[in-house]
Design goal:
It is built from 21 helices and 28 strands. The chain is α+β, with helices and mostly antiparallel strands and 778 residues long. The protein is globular. The model is unreliable at 1-7 (pLDDT under 50).
């Protein structure tokens, strides 16, 4: 009979890395006990409501707030002139894009409230503060704006044409950046020598983020301490603290950011917004906290939108279907103002990810990044990575059909091979690992592609058109950042992880605890997570770009090593042995070669009980550590989608969906599966349902859920998911990230399946019934 496993080994089998542990947050959230920003109410708080432009482009000639100021409960009305006079700074972008000549992009100044011009419907121009939200709303509606309307432009391609309305006087032709990557001469030569060239016009449609929780913020200036505290949903309190301090013109030490639970973000809540400075201005004047909560209609206007790229794409191939070069020329819409990363996505983001899993020797990307009279564009699940994979995969599927080649064979032929790793791509990235052909073949088998013909025939008997599409993708996760890994042994026997990443739906608590349990043998149920208070942090890159487990996970591993170093010295005292004779394994410090030892939790308890320590021996196991610059990783995978189209109505339904991913070391397969499902549904939604539409005057025609379609649960297919994990060599866990990969695989697989069902015809996203119906009859 096998000997029973020790308790710590049992704990590792149940809660260690690789186990499907449920999310720790769920019991609280499912019982409605989460604490979101709107749940925070400070003593004496007042309420703010924004006054926004209802004109897309116009001269702001006057603001009449007299009636509003005299309404019941109103404490004040402030405009951009008031904020500028108080000396607040401008909203900044953090990612710069170089022009093709090496100069930097245009960065027109944006203050929190417009003063000279309004530049999109929803542009904030004033705000009202009152005793109640209802009073503030009534007063905001009484503010009269004198705006002289001007012509507007809403599409990036149109914005760069001669005679287009100008968004900023100091930005000629509305071009923020004229970006170019690649050797144009070599690319042109490859196209000239190509046996076949595939050309497509590809659009990544503008998306409203539609997070479950609208943005909310409370600004509180404390005169006694001369400190400002922002309560707001965000993606990382440390970075937001520094950006808010710069916006308010104060030192970072005078700024604190606190975040509780966050009801979704997908990139949108990652930066300061213009509403925030005004809250602190009013709080300082009124001597009380000021709270602002957006409604859904306001969210559609004021939240940063996603995507909105317009490219002419070309793929050059030799007679055998080997890729020679890929070239993109197009436009990226910024909206009316620069967001944190808005300029980078359609330029740097696309160029870095276009290589995907293929041995493409030459890449060129030319992007005109343009201002328009629309809501600003910001990061949205993938931020340029799904777009690049979509462009490449649509070109490949189309080229295979045009050349009469098998769509799987053309991919295998051009895959980067494992023996070629590390592989430097034409994008300049260096892949450390990956088995792309093995992974694709696994996905094809799991999806039963061999049985597709029979399923297509069965669909035809029911009057439906069936198509199959592949999305073979690779994405480059976010750039390197420093991340905190703090470990604190509490008085009650718990152990708290302190991190600068921030969970807004990912399930960090369980995954981080699994890493700590595996490393130190600490009981899973005793591990807590602290992540939403900037005062506790010494570093923090926040959550975004699918990097949290690489950054925080590595920080936790390194902090654990420091705990072990301290623990050996302390255990030496407790066990009356030399620290050099102490080893650590499975949660215990033991004297080498003996059965004498002490568990890490027992050692922590002895410290709390007053263990006498000689000079020079650490008196705590606590660690405050910063992991430096977790590098980018390269998650990849293959998705296979099958759709059915009703030719009478043009309605598309995703009826079968299979995905196989390489996320390196999978910390928690249950969480990875959930993240994959979410990303795929958002990709399906962009492919079939979602699109922001503006009138010629710049009025949003899709300003609510009445006019803007997002999927219901019934629109999501059943998923089959599996993994082919090749651990990364660039971080201690071997992880590659997974949070945004679902979008990168679903956009191309679904649209390729739709094109296949249409007999190879190309339509752009979203494949609405109207577009599909017209394509069938064109």
């Amino acid at each position: 009979m096998n000997a029973p496993l020790a308790a710590d080994k049992l704990d590792l089998m149940k809660f260690g890395v690789g186990q499907p542990v449920p999310r720790q947050e769920d019991p609280t959230l499912l019982k409605g006990q989460g604490r979101y920003t709107d749940d925070v109410n400070l003593p004496g708080q007042a309420y703010a409501v924004m006054v926004r432009s209802q004109v897309a482009h116009g001269l702001l000639k006057g603001i009449d707030a007299e009636e509003a100021r005299n309404m019941p409960g109103v404490l004040g009305v402030w405009t951009g002139a008031d904020l500028n006079a108080a000396g607040y700074g401008a909203l900044k972008t953090v990612m710069m894009v170089p022009n093709r000549d090496g100069s930097q992009m245009k960065t027109p100044t944006r203050y929190s409230l417009a003063t000279d011009k309004v530049r999109f419907v929803g542009d904030p121009v004033a705000f009202v503060v009152a005793e109640t939200q209802a009073q503030a709303r009534d007063a905001a509606e009484a503010v009269v704006l004198d705006i002289e309307p001007l012509p507007a432009v809403t599409e990036a391609r149109a914005a760069t044409q001669p005679g287009a309305p100008i968004v900023f006087d100091d930005v000629p032709d509305n071009v923020c950046a004229d970006f170019q990557f690649g050797d144009s001469a070599k690319v042109a030569d490859a196209f000239a020598k190509a046996a076949h060239v595939t050309k497509l016009h590809l659009v990544s449609n503008r998306i409203v983020v539609c997070a479950m929780e609208p943005r909310t913020a409370i600004g509180h200036y404390d005169k006694e301490t001369d400190r400002s505290t922002l309560y707001a949903g965000c993606q990382g309190v440390f970075g937001l603290k520094n950006q808010m301090a710069a916006l308010l013109g104060i030192k970072p030490a005078q700024m604190r950011v606190v975040t509780g639970n966050v009801g979704g973000s997908f990139g949108m809540k990652g930066s300061p917004y213009p509403e925030y400075a005004g809250l602190f201005h009013a709080s300082k004047i009124l001597g009380r906290p000021v709270k602002w909560t957006d409604d859904r209609s306001g969210s559609f206007l004021s939240d940063q939108h996603g995507r909105d790229h317009d490219f002419d794409a070309e793929l050059a191939l030799d007679k055998d279907g080997t890729f020679l070069a890929v070239r993109l020329k197009g436009y990226a819409n910024l909206g009316a103002y620069l967001s944190n990363v808005g300029a980078a996505m359609g330029a740097l983001g696309v160029s870095r990810n276009l290589a995907a899993v293929y041995r493409t020797p030459l890449i060129e990307v030319q992007t005109k990044v343009a201002f328009t009279h629309t809501s600003p564009i910001g990061a949205y699940r993938g931020a340029g990575r799904p777009e690049a994979n979509y462009f490449m995969e649509r070109l490949i599927a189309t080229a295979a059909r045009e050349m009469g080649l098998d769509q799987t064979e053309i991919r295998r032929r051009n895959h980067i091979k494992p023996e070629e790793m590390p592989y430097k791509t034409a994008s300049g990235t260096v892949y450390d690992s990956g088995e792309f052909t093995v992974l694709l073949d696994k996905a094809l088998e799991l999806a039963d592609v061999a049985g597709f013909a029979a399923r297509k025939e069965e669909s035809a008997k029911r009057g439906k058109l069936r198509g199959l599409g592949i999305g073979d993708y690779l994405e480059v996760t976010a750039p390197p950042t420093n991340e905190m890994g703090g470990l604190r042994f509490e008085e009650n026997g718990d152990v708290t992880i302190i991190t600068g990443t921030l969970d807004y739906g990912q399930g960090h608590w369980s995954a981080f605890a699994q890493v700590l349990t595996t490393k130190l043998g600490i009981p899973f149920e005793r591990i807590k997570l602290k992540q939403g208070d900037s005062d506790l942090l010494i570093a923090g890159g926040g959550t975004g770009g699918s990097k949290s487990i690489m950054a925080s996970g590595a920080a936790i591993v390194e902090a654990s090593d420091k705990v072990i170093e301290k623990g050996k010295q302390i255990a030496g005292v407790a066990l009356e042995a030399s620290a050099a004779d102490i080893e650590f394994k499975l949660g215990r410090f033991e004297i080498v070669g003996t059965d004498r030892g002490i568990g890490i939790m027992e050692l922590a308890a002895k410290l709390r009980g007053g263990l006498k320590l000689p000079e020079g021996v650490p008196d705590t196991l606590d660690v405050s550590h910063v992991h430096e610059a977790a590098p980018s990783a390269f998650p990849n995978g293959a998705h296979v989608a099958e759709v059915e189209i009703d030719p009478d109505t043009g309605t598309v339904e995703v009826v079968k969906y299979t995905m196989v991913g390489d996320f390196g070391t999978v910390i928690n397969p249950m969480l990875v599966e959930g993240q994959s499902h979410g990303g795929v549904v958002q990709g399906i939604s962009q492919a079939i349902f979602e699109r922001v539409v503006y009138s010629e005057e710049g009025q949003p025609l899709t300003g609510s859920f009445t006019d803007y379609a997002i999927p219901r649960a019934g629109d999501a297919p059943s998923f089959r998911i599996d993994y082919h994990s090749v651990p990364a060599k660039t971080n201690v866990l071997g992880a590659k990230g997974c949070g945004e990969a679902g979008c990168a695989g679903s956009l191309p697989s679904v649209m390729n399946a739709i094109s296949d069902a249409l007999g190879g015809k190309h339509i752009n996203m979203p494949a609405t019934p109207e577009r599909v119906w017209e394509a069938l009859r064109s």
